[in-house]
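Tutorial, part two.
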Amino acid sequence: MKRSHITVSLILMAVLMCAMTNLNAQNGYKFTFKGATLSDGRYYVAQHFRDKFILVDSAAAQNGSVVFNGKKKLDTGVYTLLDSKQKQMFDFMVDDSRTFSIAFDEKYTNAGMKVQGSQANTLMYAYMAKLDWANSQSKAINERMKDPATQQAAQADMEKLRDEMKTFQDSYMAANARYRFTQLVRISQPVEVPQAIPAGSADTSLRDWQARYYRTHYWDNVDFADHTLIYTPQLFDKMNYYFFGLLYYQDCDTITRYAHNVLDRVVADSTMLRYFLDFITPHYERSTKNIGWDQVFVNLVNDYYLAGKCPWATKADLYSKKQTVDFLSQSLIGAMGQELLMADTNQSTDPKDWISSHAFPQKYVMLWFWDPDCNHCKKQSAELMALYDSLCNAGNKIFEVYAVGYESDVEKWKSHLRKYKYPFVNVGGPNVNIDYQEAYNVHGAPTMILLNADRQIIMNKTLPTNQVLPFLERYEKEHPEQANRAPSKWQIEGIRRAKIK
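Running the prediction step on this input gives:
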């Protein structure tokens, strides 16, 4: 009986050791890369993450070969080989196998990749090589199209090429659906947009309907439940193009709405939610050129970070974002512009002599924050003066310029005004009722703010001078109630409180 117990114990131990060996093999990896141009030195395997790389392993190359051998469990996905300077050489897949070798040529061509031990990589490089071939064929055919004598035949050959590639891609996708690369190809494919407005729709413009359809269905091929997609360049490219390409010229409400459509689908997965939010929100916060992007930042921070949907955010993070939101909210489009009272070149310390930024008979006011030491300020101020003078000469000065000298050295500011003779309402110096940098988010010069008749902010980005009048024309078309509006309230209060020089 004892011998049988011992025998059984040995068998169980052997089974356990075998299982552990298999587990370690599954968790570990061994990648071998070979190339005639692979010089001695240290090379790196890295994982894609947004537009950067996360280093996974490093190894020294010898005799044209480098081997990465580790016990870490690697997620399925796209990895890249980096050279000794951590520059990208080429991508490869970790999918069906964690033990394989790849031999490459000096130009890292897809056709030159020789793979052993990984069908996923073999299929990927074959697919990419076919695309390379099709691109070269297309380029040659396009050259033939330039010649009228061969144009018709070239067009027929292009149609054949397209049909061939469609058949190839459809066959590839169907036969290799289980591989990660196939899933990434599907992610990268454009959404097929219907060519007609569906029956019963209230839409009348096919183009507008198709644009909305494309924006709405853009993510149809993405499996948001698989957060390992964050380690692929395909998801990053798709995210980057969606927010900063496809939605680039949309207004802040439209951007916010489509952002919600994406973020609300991943809100339960904090890893995926953070992947999106940590990338897109800084772009909307820091943009100094895109109209309304600061409003998008405020919306997203309020709706996700400050709504308690971001468990990774620390108290310090949330406090900082709350401070930024409070700061930006004062100068968002649609907010009431805070009235500035500042001294002119007389630098009176009596507030009764200070000039109001709001008390002008003109329908619009341009707050113009400029710096005498700023060359761009000088150039744009000169252009603004030319526009201002032309409007005055034509008897059509629809806006007043309240020009704030963004300079602590009052004498330098005055000297600059004497030299360039700006005809604006010029104010500056330390005598002011509020911190205008805080009130209007002035973080540099020049900064332009446009106020309407009610002295609401209608533009908080610095426009080129030649775009000011077109902007006001568009504004009045979009807000016809403002077309004949007069700032009577501010005229009356201004006459009582501040003298305008």
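Confidence is low (pLDDT under 50) at residues 1-25, 494-501. In part three we will examine how such features are distributed along the chain.
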